[in-house]
Structure prediction request, 176 residues.
Amino acid sequence: MEGWIKLHRKILNWEWFKEDNTFRVFIYLLSSANYKTSKWRGITVNRGQVITGRSVIAEDLGISERSVRTCLSRLKSTSEITVKSTNKYSIVTVCKYEEYQFIGNDNDQQNDQQSVQQATNKRPATDHIQEYKEDKKVEKERIKKAEILKKQREEEELKREKETKDFIDDLMNDRI
Prediction:
């Protein structure tokens, strides 16, 4: 499965947030729900709906079917979902899917999203540029220091070679 879902921070205040399995089942359903209307075996599956079963959810989440049934009951009791069951599958509808995954032109949400996106777009670029500049500066300083050290070593080596040559010349002159 590919793509992403939006998850508003208000989820932290949601009544089922601290109920681990219920929260996981809800996020699973939200993530699995169709983002556009499609057909499955001649059945129209609308945006916000998913065809599944308790055993599939249980297996995918690694929890018991009984836990899944309890979680689905909780979510139904607070009108988070509706479930239409057959003997082979269930069509689960996330009731507020449009609110959770809004893609329209709601001005407040659009403005909020634009503001957040603009801030996000500006900040990382600025941060990354500043980091890049700092890294380049540090790298240049490191290279400069390395070049200075290399030059000092070369000068010392040349000096030692000259001293050694002079010493050998002096020794040779003394013997002659």
